[in-house]
Amino acid sequence: MRFSKLVLETRSIRRFKQSVRLSRENIFKFVDSARLAPNAANLQVLRFSAVTSENNCERIFPALKWAGYLEEWTGPEEGEKPAAYIVIHAPDEEKPYTKMDVGIAAAYIVLSAREAGYGSCIIMSFDCGIISEAVDTPENYRPQLVIALGVSGEEVILETALKDIRYWRDELGIHHVPKLKLEEIIT
Ligand SMILES: Cc1cc2nc3c(=O)[nH]c(=O)nc-3n(C[C@H](O)[C@H](O)[C@H](O)COP(=O)(O)O)c2cc1C
Predict the structure, then answer these.
(1) For tag attachment on the chain, is the N or C end more exposed, with fewer CB atoms within 10 Å?
(2) Residue 56: CB within 6 Å of ligand 1?
(3) Which domains are seen in the chain, by residue range?
(4) Quick one: which atom of ligand 1 is closest to the CA of 179?
(5) Which residue's C-alpha comes closest to atom 5 of ligand 1?
(6) pLDDT tens by residue, 9-60
């Protein structure tokens, strides 16, 4: 797929086809993209947990906070929940570059997932205690991001932001994501 199309299609997905499961091989491919990503001084300090079994997905799900702007929506319902997760861990002792490395790794993962036909959502609002217990967080590491994965079960439309940058859902349940114009972000 052309990169420009991949970027357009890599939207945050929050409703999935829960019954379509991902194999660990799928997930490892996405993590492999993060392995090859740029990172500060090539220190490669990040670690990744793959969660694919239904049992473990059930343990992760209650820790996640979805779509802050959609106040009425309590998150994916049964049948729409993610089919897998990747948790990105970074060392407890945070360096100035840590969060940048985490962001770049997450971007590589979601692009790689989309290329393989899967939707994703990067989640930073989560209960760290639940996530740390549910996956093997290495000693002296802390979960930084959870990436929810699965076959998309929703339609997402990009639109030009006028005044409001908040994403919203229309009466058909279609998710709209307003983006600023190019000339507004180039200084
Ligand atoms: C660092 C980061 C943290 C995010 N945390 C959450 C989150 O906790 N919950 C959630 O539902 N979405 C989260 N998102 C998804 C954003 O809301 C989403 O990227 C944004 O609304 C733009 O939509 P788009 O990804 O389709 O362009 C996060 C995204 C990023 C990059």
Answers:
(1) C
(2) no
(3) 3-154 (3.40.109.10), 155-187 (2.20.180.10)
(4) 27
(5) 123
(6) 999 999 999 999 999 999 999 999 999 999 999 999 999 999 999 999 999 9
Give, in degrees to the nearest 5, the angle at Cα 93 between 87 and 99.
50
| Residue 108: Cβ within 10 Å count | 19
Backbone dihedral angles phi then psi of residue 85, each to the nearest 5 degrees = -145, 150
C-alpha–C-alpha distance, residues 65 and 128, integer Å: 12
Output DSSP code: residue 16. Answer: B
| SS3 sequence of 116-172 | CCCEEEEECCECHHHHHHHCCCCCCEEEEEEEEEECECCCEEEEECCCCCCCEECCC
* Closest ligand 1 atom to 13 CA: 26
